[in-house]
Amino acid sequence: MSDSLRESQESPDEGDIHEMHDPIAREFERPEDGYQPIPLTLIFLFFALVGWGGWYLGAYSGDWRVDVFYPGDRATAAAEAQKESSGGTSPEELATLGKRVYAQCAACHQQNGKGVAGNFPPLDGTEWVTGPPQTLIRILLHGLEGPIQVAGNEYNAQMPAWGGQLSDRQIAAVLTYIRSAWSNQAGPVKPAQVESLRKESADRSASWTASELKSLESGQ
User: How far apart are the first and last CA of the chain?
Assistant: First the structure.
């Protein structure tokens, strides 16, 4: 018997092979091309997590207040918030709060109150800080522009207004702090003083100038 005849007898037909496997193949799902839809359960879980995260941030962020995240326990932060709304605290408490508020000013006026020569005037030992508190209140409420003589040197940097960002108590606190810090020995500033001047200058939109402030001082 020839080799070709023997191979034809031993090798099954290709069609027979498919017929043998068809019953087995029907028991399994055939793979399909393309994308499978995301399960609804997974979508629901995703949006549930996003919603929970939004609720958590809203409930525990403290209205995104900066002072909520200062070192200290939650009770201390809550107490500060209560004092913020009630006002009328002691000079010592105002100075403590004022030191924290002053952290926003230290980049320009420096932690030691010496300022930056030629750019930002010093706060330590200057008549602008230890003089009438009304002048400082006006500067913080509406800002300062133009040339100003401080400790024998002239400065011409823009002082931004803080009235829209700081409350009456915060302004009183930071002014109380700088008027008693370093070598300064001036008296405290009361939140009621800030409130009064804020109402008095409510229609003002421009920054103060040194000449305007000196004129007001002379009339006080």
Answer: 132
Instruction: Give the distance, in angstroms, between the CA of residue 153 and the centroid of all CA atoms in the same chain.
Output: 34
**pLDDT of 64-74, one tens digit each?**
555 544 544 44
Fold observed for domain 74-219: Cytochrome Bc1 Complex; Chain D, domain 2 (1.10.760)
Report the C-alpha gap between 168 and 18 in whole angstroms. 89
CA 207, CA 144: separation in Å to the nearest integer?
5
Give pTM, 2 decimals: 0.61
List the single range of 74-88, 151-165, 200-214 with lowest mean pLDDT. Answer: 74-88
Closest CA relative to residue 141, chosen from 168, 113, 120: 168
Write the burial class of residue 193 (CB in 10 Å: 0-12 exposed, 13-18 middle, 19+ buried): middle
